[in-house]
Amino acid sequence: MCLGIPGELIDFLPEHADLATVEVSGVRRRINVGLLADEELRPGDWVLVHVGFALSKISEQEAQAVVDYLEGLGQPYTDELDALRASDIG
């Protein structure tokens, strides 16, 4: 199962305009935010992350609702977090 997981933008990589650090349930990873080039993104914003890409900007309330739902899935959510821990965009 592939999930889109909410992540909070922590900072941007100045040497790579399309890369940012997000925190997803305590896991920090670099992701590509290039698909949201038309959005005004700032640290503290929430994005929906899938396979290393930010797909859309979402509100904090939407992010919390999705996290609550995903946590209720149990193992699929745990598996997705494990995959996130094991990956990183360099």
Number of distinct helices: 2
List the helices and strands in order: EEEEEHH
CATH topology: SH3 type barrels
Radius of gyration: 12 Å
State the CATH class.
Mainly Beta
Number of domains: 1
Q: How would you describe this protein?
A:
With 90 residues, the protein is of the alpha+beta class. The chain has one domain (5-86): Roll (SH3 type barrels). 29% of the residues lie in helices and 34% in strands. It has two helices and five strands; from the N terminus they run E-E-E-E-E-H-H. The chain has helices at residues 60-73, 75-86; strands at 5-12, 19-24, 27-32, 46-50, 53-58. A five-stranded antiparallel sheet has the order 3-2-1-4-5. Strand 2 and strand 3 form a beta hairpin. Helix 1 (60-73) crosses helix 2 (75-86). It is globular, with a radius of gyration of 12 Å. The model has no long low-confidence stretch (mean pLDDT 87).
Summed up, what is this model?
InterPro entries: Hydrogenase_HupF/HypC. Pfam families: HupF_HypC. With 90 residues, the protein is α+β, with helices and mostly antiparallel strands.
How do the helices and strands line up, and which of them pair or pack?
Blueprint: E1 5-12, E2 19-24, E3 27-32, E4 46-50, E5 53-58, H1 60-73, H2 75-86
Antiparallel strand pairs: 1-2, 1-4, 2-3, 4-5
Family: Belongs to the HupF/HypC family.
Protein name: HypC/HybG/HupF family hydrogenase formation chaperone
InterPro entries: Hydrogenase_HupF/HypC
Keywords, separated by commas or semicolons:
90 residues, alpha+beta, SH3 type barrels, 5-stranded antiparallel beta sheet, 2 helices
